Amino acid sequence: MKLFDGIPVYGDLQPEALDQMKRCAEHDDVVGCALMADHHLGYAVPVGGVIAYGEHVSPSGVGYDIACGNKAVRLDMPAVEVRESIGAIMDAVWSALSFGVGRKNADAPDDPLFEDDAWRLDSAAPLLETARAQLGTIGSGNHYVDLFADEQDRTWVGVHFGSRGLGHKLATHYIKAGGGRDGIHVDPVLLHQDSDLGREYIAAMTLAGAYAYAGRDWVCQRVADLLGAPILDEVHNHHNFAWRESHGGRDVWVVRKGATPAFPGQRGFVGGSMGDISVILEGVDSADAAPTFASTVHGAGRVMSRTAAAGKYKGWGEKRHQVSRGAVSEGMMAEWLFREGVTLRGAGLDESPHCYRRLPDVLAAHADSVRILHTLTPIGVAMAGAGEFDPYKD
Known about the structure:
The protein contains ten helices and 18 strands. By secondary structure, it is of the alpha+beta class. Helix 6 packs antiparallel against helix 7.
């Protein structure tokens, strides 16, 4: 960890993300902030950013994909059985689940969360029926359903997505209502916890969190059912959310945007790119955890924008990723996945492993505050197809 203008920064510094965080830190209610090792430029607040406020929450900090997060489940199934039928398994996953923008789930469950009083909010009520139909859909962008083998060759299922259109529309509503604007280089919106708008947002955010949890639960169970294997263990976390927590003897709102909670003993699932390892980790009690407000990375972090991957912008990439002029070809992505033994369904070049940091490098920057419990090697990856634009802005 290094300090830049008083801000703790983990991993390789992305200067534009630091500039964003410096602007966020100017508010007089900021207790502290930090950039995780997977940080990069985001909407108003950097992805991989953690900010603690005394009495405010930030819809901009939580972001447009409220309660985006990861869930991993371990199945009672040896990974060798998955490898033997991986093509057919991935075909079944791709057919049974809904990937892409605006998709509906024909098998969407009538979850008890739809009885929550928060649906009576003026911001949420018009979204109820769409939310019912979208529950358990995965979306696009960097959202996925993966099959893994751990170090004991046991099978894990990992998923990454959030609150879908519900969260996006709620975030848009409260950012606008709070006087904010959509954009990268804009000031973040802050709402006082005791204001009418602040209380409304907290209720809406909590509702979106329950919705995201229910969706990830459903998808993991659906994949387990497809494989005919019971779930033996599960690890589940948001990484776009605001929590009321106690740090240094003070109660604060900790806003994590693309950052995983990692209190001592708390487990988390952190995914790499489609051609890299993922991990199950836990927080450990260390002095290095304090500047992060008990947080760690949520993924590997992009080093190439989506437009750069398509060759529309040159110069954002790293030599170690062997990227020529900022563009990724189908052959480059296919070669990487073949080398790693990954069977892919869907995905565009903007999700190629070339566009991301290597997860072990990112995790090394947080080695003093987290412990790796399981290393997960990808066997199969399913994502929305190429050309699917994700409006939900994870």
